[in-house]
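Work Package 4 report. The design task specified in the project plan requires that, given a folded chain encoded as structure tokens, an amino acid be chosen for each position. We show below one input record used in the internal validation round.
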């Protein structure tokens, strides 16, 4: 009986901690800045996300180098395109960056492209990505559609897009291998 009580208390504690974590997260919108902390968090987060997946499965020579190049490339492009891109950082109560998301808006198509999204490994599964995405989309009141591309091996991301109401779609960048990537979209 007391074991059952402790188990319930533990579950309530976990639920409470998760709710508090997302609620305590501060979001900061940015158009300029070095994004060093965001880069560090993203590479570490991606590395954690792909653990158990081999470089061969990912189709890259080295997972760390691939992630470093991907996030550095995203950050450089976002910083070079302040008219169309912006990013939002999530920070914990101490002010440490624990996640970021970057967005690109096509005003003629009224389409938001979610470029990158990463949450520090200790902060995953606490609703922070959901908060970043929802608040990110809310920045574009004229948008009619949101699009994203993810790797087929990225099960956590796919589950998240589905939970957020995204549907699998034909959206894809030129030159992307459809065997490796999957597009998602959501009409607003
Ligand atoms: C994918 C990622 C961004 C999710 O961030 P997160 O803050 O943990 O996501 P949330 O807490 O908002 O989760 C929302 C929902 O997504 C799904 N989800 C998230 N992570 C999951 C996992 N590891 N396994 C299964 N479902 C998962 C769940 O449905 C979850 O809701 P629930 O916790 O109530 O069940 C995070 O794992 C990450 O940073 N991964 C590495 C980088 C990356 O893959 N970026 C996405 C590129 S498209």
């Amino acid at each position: 009986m007391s074991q059952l009580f402790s188990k319930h208390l533990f579950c309530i504690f976990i639920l409470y901690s998760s709710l508090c974590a997302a609620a305590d997260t501060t979001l900061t919108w940015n158009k300029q800045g070095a994004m060093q902390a965001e880069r560090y968090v993203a590479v570490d987060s991606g590395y954690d996300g792909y653990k158990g997946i081999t470089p061969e499965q990912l189709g890259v020579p080295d997972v760390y180098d691939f992630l470093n190049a991907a996030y550095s490339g995203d950050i450089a492009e976002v910083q070079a395109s302040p008219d169309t891109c912006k990013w939002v950082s999530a920070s914990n109560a101490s002010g440490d960056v624990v996640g970021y998301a970057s967005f690109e808006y096509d005003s003629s198509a009224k389409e938001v492209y979610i470029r990158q999204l990463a949450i520090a490994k200790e902060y995953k599964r606490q609703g922070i990505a959901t908060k970043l995405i929802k608040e990110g989309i809310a920045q574009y009141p004229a948008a009619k559609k949101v699009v994203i591309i993810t790797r087929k091996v990225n099960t956590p991301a796919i589950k998240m897009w589905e939970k957020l109401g995204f549907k699998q779609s034909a959206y894809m960048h030129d030159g992307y291998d459809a065997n490796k990537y999957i597009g998602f979209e959501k009409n607003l």
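Confidence is low (pLDDT under 50) at residues 13-19. Validation will be extended to a larger panel in the next phase.
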